[in-house]
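User: Second chain of the day. Same drill as before.
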Amino acid sequence: MKKVFLKLKQWADHLTSDFIGGPKPWKLAWVINFQKAGTFVFIGLLMWLYQNNSMAAWVYLALHGGYGLVWLIKDVNFPDASWQRKVTIPAGLVAFFGVLFWYWVMAWLLISTSESPVYPLPEVQWYALCITLCLLGCVIMIAADAQKHYTLRHQKGLITTGIHRRIRHPNYLGEIMIYGAFGLLVWHPLAAVILIAIWLGVFVPNMVAKEHSLSRYPEWSEYKKNSGWLLPFM
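Assistant: Same format as last time:
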């Protein structure tokens, strides 16, 4: 299974870096930031187009649109080095339409219908659950990326302290919580399919590849034994 995910990682890197070939005029970060910055506007336009002023739509705008703005602040202050690579134009389009665009489809699923989703709990309780999950996810993701950025500036190697002490992939845990909150708010089968496909096709291969790379450090075995993949001791 590990070899399968590593191969998926190789394919994904090729498709989002060198696909078809040619000049590499833009960074992958620019493609990602375009989607993040445009999310608030895109959701607002959907609400205007479908005349949807429901509470669910406004909460979704605040959470998903607001998260896009949070991401931009993070990228300005401590950008992820892995997104700074230059990519071909076709590769940038693959990254956008193959992954990022589908997050906008989730917004469309919610806002394009005049009927509010039928949640398992009363609406106010469900909104509270989604907001709490999104907020916690943002804190975990920001803390993980900030610690990694500033630690590696001064000391290369395996990070085994702070939020990484008990969780090996806290940034992905945060992302899963954030987008999980969006999926719960949309409450549509296709939203679940989109999230699971991205998590299995992008997140898991990245995590497997990261662990494969980090295993070269002598302290890796001890760190792996005392930490969990996404949750402590998982």
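The radius of gyration is 19 Å.

User: Great, on to the next one.
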